[in-house]
Design brief:
Elements (H helix, E strand, L loop, with lengths): L5 E2 L3 E3 L2 E3 L4 E6 L4 E6 L8 H8 L7 E6 L5 H9 L3 E7 L2 H11 L5 H4 L2 E5 L6 H6 L7 E6 L14 H7 L7 H10 E12 L3 H8 L3 E12 L6 E8 L6 E2 L3 E4 L7 H7 L10
C-alpha cells in the first residue's frame, strides 16, 4: 500500500519555531501521491483514511473538507481519485498541520496541491468562532472525518502527538457532527470512520442534522466481528437507517482481500445501501 523513506527537518510555524518530528515519506495509490508522516510518534494514517476516500461517489466534484486531516492522506486520496474535487485539510495540531503543508509542497503532489489547502483550526468550535476560523456555513459538498476513537476515561498515550490525535474531547462526537452539519450544503455527504460498539453515538448526534445514514461494517477477516464501521450520512435527509454489506479487509493469511486492495488503491468505490 505504501513505500517509505525517512527524513528529518526543522520547520518554523506562525506560533514559533517547532521541531518537526522524524518523518517517513509514504507512497499511496501505487505512487500516485506521497505523504510525510511522523515516524515513531504521533498518528499515522492507514486504511481508515483510504476507505473514507473510497466512500465518495464516482465523479465526486465540488468542495471537500477533511476534518482532523492529520498529514492529509484521506484528502489527497480523494483528490487523486476525483479530478473535480477541491479539498481543505482542517487540522488543529500545528505540527501535523505543518506536515500537511509540507506534504502539499512535495513534487510528487504538484497536480493535487493545486486543488488543496490547509486550514489550522479547531473542528469543535461553534457559531461565529467556527466561521471566523475559516469554516463557513454551507460551504462544502463533502466532509470526511476520522474523529478520535478514545475517550477521557481510557488510558491516554504517553506520546503527546498520538494522544491528541486519538483522544476525544469532553464534548464527545457531538461537536464534530455539529460542525460537519453546519459546513455542509443541504444534501451534502458526510463520510466517517467510527468504532462499531459506539454506533449509538453517531445515531444520537445525527438527530436533526443527518439522515439517509448507511453503515458498512469493516471486518479484519472473514468471521471476525466488525470493530470499525464506515458511515455515510446525508445533510438534511429524512431517509431511514440502512446497514450495508460488510467489507472484509484481510484473508486468513493476512493478505489484503482483492476488494480491499482495489479500495485502498483508488481503483474501486464502496457500495452503500440505497
Amino acid at each position: 500500500m505504501n513505500e517509505t523513506g525517512r527524513s528529518t527537518t526543522t520547520a518554523r510555524l506562525a506560533t514559533g519555531e517547532i521541531r518537526r518530528p522524524p518523518t517517513t515519506r509514504d507512497k499511496f495509490y501505487r505512487g500516485r501521491f506521497e505523504v510525510l508522516q511522523p515516524d515513531g510518534t504521533g498518528h499515522r494514517a492507514g486504511s481508515d483514511a483510504l476507505l473514507m476516500a473510497a466512500g465518495l461517489p464516482e465523479g465526486a466534484a465540488g468542495r471537500l473538507a477533511d476534518l482532523g486531516a492529520g498529514a492529509g492522506v484521506a484528502a489527497l486520496a480523494a483528490l487523486a481519485a476525483n479530478p473535480g474535487l477541491q479539498a481543505v485539510l482542517v487540522e488543529v495540531d500545528p505540527v501535523m498541520a505543518e506536515l500537511a503543508r509540507a506534504t502539499l509542497e512535495l513534487g510528487a503532489n504538484a497536480r493535487l496541491a493545486e486543488r488543496a489547502s490547509v486550514l489550522e483550526a479547531d473542528v469543535t468550535l461553534s457559531g461565529e468562532r467556527r466561521q471566523d476560523a475559516g469554516l463557513a456555513n454551507a460551504s462544502f459538498d463533502y466532509v470526511l472525518m476520522n474523529p478520535p476513537y478514545n475517550f477521557a476515561p481510557q488510558r491516554p498515550s504517553p506520546d503527546e502527538l498520538r494522544s491528541l490525535a486519538h483522544m476525544m474531547g469532553e464534548g464527545g462526537l457531538d461537536p464534530w457532527l455539529r460542525t460537519a452539519a453546519a459546513i455542509l450544503r443541504p444534501g451534502g455527504l458526510l463520510i466517517m470512520i467510527w468504532r462499531a460498539e459506539r454506533l449509538g453515538d453517531v445515531l444520537a448526534c445525527a438527530q436533526g442534522r443527518f439522515g439517509g445514514i448507511c453503515v458498512l461494517p469493516l471486518h479484519a477477516r472473514h468471521g471476525a466481528a466488525a470493530r470499525r464501521i464506515l458511515v455515510r450520512a446525508v445533510r438534511g435527509s429524512r431517509a431511514p437507517l440502512a446497514i450495508g454489506q460488510g467489507i472484509v479487509l484481510h484473508e486468513a493469511d493476512g493478505r489484503q482481500t482483492a476488494l480491499a486492495d482495489e479500495l485502498l488503491n483508488g481503483r474501486a468505490r464502496l457500495a452503500f445501501a440505497a
